[in-house]
Amino acid sequence: MEDLSGHFLISTPQMPDPRFQEQVILLCAHNQEGAMGMVINKPNEEISMMEVLLGTNIPLPEGPLPPVYNGGPVEMEAGFILYNSDAEAGKSLKVTPDIYLSREAKLLEKISKGEGPENYLFLLGYAGWGPGQLEIELMDNSWLTVPGDMHVLFDTPDDLKWKQAAHRFGINISLFNNIVGNA
Asked: Which domain of life does the UniProt lineage start with (predicted)?
């Protein structure tokens, strides 16, 4: 089994689960025990970053605040920070040489003071798969896998990430259902 940590999962038009249609997930962990990732293109319409910071008694930083993202349907109350830096943030999972995942409130405090990473996404919840579950979904053509890309992750507007993540590797995801099949 190839470790797909650091890769994007791009839902294909064959995705049967409506929660994941036109979604891009950055896989943060993938091994024999299963997989875990973060949906990176689904802003949460019900909670703002200001509410998150005020709710945790963290001072508001200067300037505009980014959106809060729905990271996935598992543990929707759990907060995560995807960021590109090696800034000290306590316990962090190294997803790629440039991308880390943290649950440390200390990192949010640093961000509010302007001392944290320049690029980050704050997410609530995550996407998870049990042993072999993701591999079955990959065989069913529910997902396309491509290497993760910092430009798509941090610089691309959310409504364009689904198409752009595939396009960066020469794939028109809108036409994907015309070229897949099972032999």
From this structure: Bacteria
Count of structural domains within the chain: 1
Residue with tokens 């090696």: 86
**pTM, whole model, 2 decimals?**
0.91
d(CA 91, CA 144): 30
Residue where the block lists tokens 């919840």: 125
- Count CB-CB contacts under 10 A for residue 133: 12
User: What does the pLDDT look like over 8-54, one tens digit per residue?
Assistant: 999 998 898 998 999 999 999 999 999 999 999 999 999 999 999 99
Q: Look up the CATH number of the domain holding residue 27.
A: 3.40.1740.10
Positive or negative, the CA dihedral 137, 142, 144, 150 is negative
Q: Round to whole Å and give the CA distance between 163 and 175.
A: 11
Which tokens hold the place of 55?
A: 């709710």
Tell me how far apart the alpha carbons of residues 23 and 5 are, in angstroms, rounded to a whole number. 17
Give the residue among 4, 46, 3, 10 at the shortest CA–CA distance from 170.
Answer: 10
* Assigned domain for 183 exists: no
- Helical (H) or strand (E) element with 75: strand 74-83
Beta bridge partners of 38: 26
Q: Per the structure block, which two tokens stand in for 129?
A: 């798969």
